[in-house]
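Team,

Forwarding the record for the chain on the shared tracking sheet. I've put the sequence and predicted structure together so nobody has to dig through attachments.
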Amino acid sequence: MPNQSDLLMLRDKLRKFAEARDWGQFHSPKNLSMALMVEVAELMEHFQWLSEAQSASLAAEKKTAVADELADILLYLVRLSDKLEVDLLEAALGKLEKNAAKYPAEQARGNAKKYSEY
C-alpha cells in the first residue's frame, strides 16, 4: 500500500509533467473529473461481456491493458486531488473509518446489503 511520501512523489511528478506541457490550463477539477470517468469507462470495457470467472483470471495481455487503465485512473485521481488540495491518503483512511462504522463486520459479513438495509 502506498504511503504518504509515495503519493506526494507521484503528485510532484504529475505537476512537473503537466507544467512541462503547459497543461495546467486544461486541468480544472471539472475537466479532470470528466477525464477520470472516461478512464473508468475504458477499464470497464475490458470486463464487458466476461463472466465472473473470466474477469478474475485475465490473460497476460489483457491484464497489462487493465493495469494501464488502472494507472490512468490513479494519475487522474492524484492530479484531481492535488488541484482540489485534498490529502488523498487522509481522505481514504477517513472514509475507511466511516465505512467501518456503517458496515460493522458482524452485520456485513457475507452479504451485499447496503448499510441502510440492516
